[in-house]
Amino acid sequence: MIHRIYVLISPAPLLLFALVLNYMSGLEGWGAWAAGPMILPVVALSAGQGLYGLNLAVRATSVRWRTVLTIAAVLAGSVAIWLPVQGLAHMFG
Predict the structure, then answer these.
(1) d(CA 53, CA 35)
(2) Rounded distance, CA 47 to CA 74, Å?
(3) Rounded CA separation 17/14 (Å)
(4) For the chain, first and last CA: distance in Å?
(5) Residues 45-69, buried b or exposed e (16+ Cβ, 10 A)?
(6) How many whole angstroms from its chain centre is CA 91?
(7) Alpha helices in 60-77 (DSSP H)
(8) Structural contact between residues 14 and 47, judged by C-beta atoms closer than 8 angstroms
(9) For residues 93 and 85, what is the distance between their CA atoms, to the nearest angstrom?
(10) How far apart are the C-alpha atoms of 60 and 54, rounded to whole Å?
(11) What angle do CA 86, 93, 22 make, to 5 degrees?
C-alpha cells in the first residue's frame, strides 16, 4: 500500500519546482532574488522524498517493485540532484 502511495506522489517535488520557477519568471528585478528562498523547501522535500524512496526500494520484496520504486525515487529526488549540478555547471562552466 505504501509503495503505491509513494509512486503516486513521487512527481510532487518536480511539479512544485516547476510551479515555483513559473511564479519566479514573472517577477522583475530584485523580486526574483527575494523570492529565491521559496526554492529551498522544494529542494528539501525532493531530497527527503528521494531518500525515502531509495529506502523503500532497498526493502522491496520483488524485483518489479524495486525497479518501480527506484525510478520513482529518482523522479522525486530529481530537483535535489539537478540543482547542485546546475550550480556547479554555472560555477565552473
Answers:
(1) 29
(2) 10
(3) 5
(4) 44
(5) bbbebbebbbebbeebeeeebeebb
(6) 22
(7) 63-76
(8) no
(9) 11
(10) 10
(11) 35
∠ CA 17-9-41, nearest 5°, is 35
**Sign of the dihedral defined by the CA atoms of residues 78, 80, 83, 87, in that order:** negative
The Cα 86–Cα 93 span in angstroms is 10
pLDDT, tens digit only, all 93 positions of the chain: 889 999 999 999 999 999 999 998 888 888 878 888 889 999 999 999 999 999 999 999 999 999 999 999 999 999 999 988 998 998 997
Residue with cell 528521494: 50
Is the pTM of the predicted complex or chain greater than 0.70? yes
